[in-house]
Design brief:
The protein has helices spanning 2-17, 25-33, 38-46, 56-64, 69-78, 110-115, 161-164, and strands at residues 86-91, 94-97, 101-102, 105-108, 122-129, 136-137, 144-147, 172-176, 178-180, 183-192, 197-200, 210-216, 219-224, 231-237, 250-256. With 257 residues, it is α+β, with helices and mostly antiparallel strands. It has 2 domains: 2-78, no CATH class; 86-256, no CATH class. A hairpin with a 2-residue loop joins strand 12 (210-216) and strand 13 (219-224). Helix 3 packs parallel to helix 5 (69-78). The chain is elongated and about 80 Å long.
Length: 257
């Protein structure tokens, strides 16, 4: 009787000692070594903050040390972290998000087209306020990370729909922005007077090619194929525009130092 009471007491003390810390792989092994059953361990996981390593190698080790399949499944579920979507750039191995800039307006140089009797196309120019982006990057070893939301592709009603609608960096053009007065401009389309045809998007001749590496789970590493000289640049979405009055009014802009 005394031994049973002592065992329960010691287990209670050990269990309480875990209440103030994050549950880790080692925590699971410690609880198993103390004699706790799977149901108790799962209850502890559900009531605690966690920091599990559920890589293949670690799962193999845990399985070999007696962790049950239902506990492993719960550990995997708890280790799923909501991934923030968007475009990021690397600075000292840290990812920094590029907040998109909104166009302040769009103009068409109809006068130039008229003077050429419609032979020259009228350019549609969109403007962004300020002559320099708040996103400052260095040209050396410049890489970007595109993280797409693979779970909420149909939720276009909130946030940046043009990014939510995309599935690959191939749907974006990397191009330079031209400084003019106190703003930056980008040619986002052309209209030909003779044929009345419109061409939307960035001119391929003005696009900067980049390499794409698929990292899995909607994440891509994007690297410009050339060293970008100091100046203003942006990623501009030119993929399929969904029905319902949507139009692309923003860019992921950055300034190369």
């Amino acid at each position: 009787m005394k031994k049973t009471f002592l065992l329960v007491f010691l287990l209670s003390i050990s269990f309480i000692s875990f209440s103030q810390e994050k549950m880790t792989n080692q925590s699971i092994l410690d609880l198993i070594n103390l004699g706790f059953e799977s149901e108790i361990i799962k209850a502890k996981i559900n009531s605690s903050s966690t920091d599990f390593d559920t890589s293949i190698d670690q799962l193999k080790i845990l399985k070999e040390k007696g962790v049950s399949s239902d506990v492993l499944a719960l550990m995997i579920d708890k280790s799923k972290v909501a991934v923030e979507s968007g475009v990021f750039y690397k600075r000292n191995e840290k990812l920094i998000k590029i907040e998109p800039s909104v166009f302040s307006g769009t103009r068409t140089n109809a006068l130039g087209a008229a003077m050429s009797y419609g032979i020259a196309p009228a350019k549609m120019k969109s403007y962004v306020n300020n002559v320099s982006s708040s996103n400052k990057v260095e040209s050396k070893n410049l890489t970007f990370i595109f993280q797409f939301d693979t779970k909420n592709k149909n939720d276009l009603g909130s946030g940046n729909w043009w990014f939510k609608a995309a599935t690959s960096p191939n749907e974006f053009a990397l191009t330079a922005l031209k400084k003019k007065n106190n703003r930056r401009e980008l040619v986002t389309g052309k209209i030909r007077g003779i044929t009345a045809s419109a061409q939307m998007g960035v001119d391929p001749k003005k696009s900067i090619k980049f390499s794409i590496e698929d990292l899995g789970s909607g994440r891509y590493k994007v690297t410009p194929n050339i060293n970008l000289v100091p100046g203003e640049y942006c990623f501009f979405y030119q993929g399929t525009i969904p029905m319902g009055g949507f139009n692309n009014q923003s860019i992921f802009d950055f300034s190369v130092q």
